[in-house]
Amino acid sequence: MSSLSYDQSKTIANKTIGILAFITVFEVLFALLGKGYLIEGFHISGWITGGAMMVLSIVKAYLIVYEFMHMKYEVPGLVKTVLLPTLLLVWAIIAFMAEGKYWGTSRSNVKNPVSQVESVK
Amino acid sequence: MASDTLAHDHHTDTHAGGSWKGGSEPFKASYGKLMMWYFLLSDAFTFSGFLIAYGALRFSMPSWPVPDFVFSTFPGGFHHLPLLFVTVMTFILLASSYTMVRAVQEGHRENKRGVVVWMMWTILGGAAFLGCQAWEWNTLMGKEHMTVTTNPFGSHTVSGTYLEGDGHDIKEGDTFEAGDSYLMHKHDGEWAPLKYTITSEGPNKGKEGKQTFGPKAFGALFFFITGFHGFHVLSGVAFLLIICLNSATGLYAKRRNGYEMVEKIGLYWHFVDLVWVFVFLFFYLL
Fold this sequence. Notes:
The structure holds 2 protein chains of 2 kinds.
Chain A: H1 6-34, H2 46-68, H3 76-83, H4 88-109
Helix pairs in contact in A: 1-2
Chain B: H1 2-15, H2 31-60, H3 67-70, H4 84-108, H5 112-143, E1 153-155, E2 160-162, E3 175-176, E4 181-183, E5 186-187, E6 190-191, E7 195-198, E8 208-210, H6 217-248, H7 251-255, H8 260-285
Antiparallel strand pairs in B: 1-4, 2-3, 2-7, 5-6, 7-8
Helix pairs in contact in B: 2-6, 2-8, 4-5, 4-8, 5-6, 6-8
């Protein structure tokens, strides 16, 4: 339960949905711009657009969890028991992306590899 | 001595507010709300497992279907509109999250009419999202023939000139560069990979090649992950309906707890939106 008045929480909700909508539009336009759909011949490195969109998605996640799901107004113990376990995912992501890269390299090192794509009937 | 210890024990017991007798709420949240949070935490791990599998398999492949090529159709027969339809879907889900917030706020001030009206908008948003997803799946499966095991979305590894057209986007004599995407079509129920002459430098220059299927895992990952999310939306809509009906009949008004059930289903509904943020990121934006 928050200590905010009805009008205060309504204002916060309006502001939050505005920011979320803005970020979403920005992400889509940025993705299309980076891939050269908006300006002919203009590209941005996938690392920059990808990184920016990951950061923006985390901002969106923060707004949804903290404002829409009211995590901001819960007691610290609840916040910690829910959010700290998700830190485990940081290593899972790093480890599995590295593992994926390794699968790719070992597959390309195989002599006479089994065709990576299904042969056309 | 013995009686002293007993008295002492009794004292600490009452001092702790009778925690063992129940009735006190850890973290100042009710049992139901707390368990909803922990359920959502575990669900977040399930979705993370799926998305991490997607990332690992994508990293292991030399090429991957380009999302703005794969997801570029729009209802009404429109093509070449990259990401437009999924952006619409994202906005529908965001809007339904907002209406859910409003329902919870009306619940806090015990306004039954407000709760029911805003929940009905939320249900409508959820149903609209499911409708969009049904259309998207139908297009991918029915028109583009993508299945769990077959992925007709490929990428060229060389540049070349097509020797034949497919009657859709590709005409005879069209050229392409390495990295360009294509969609392999079926003719009379049979896959019809197009033949081309390789023009990029290398030992194969001048030789003939033909289109191949894209990474096989793409179809399975797409259908399982968006399907699992869609199933969450579907069950969310079912629970929203039940709770909306219960609110309308006055069941929650009687409880005088600020429509806590609405708050709990609200947590679930926002979580579904939260997952979509990441599905949207990994499948469509990156």
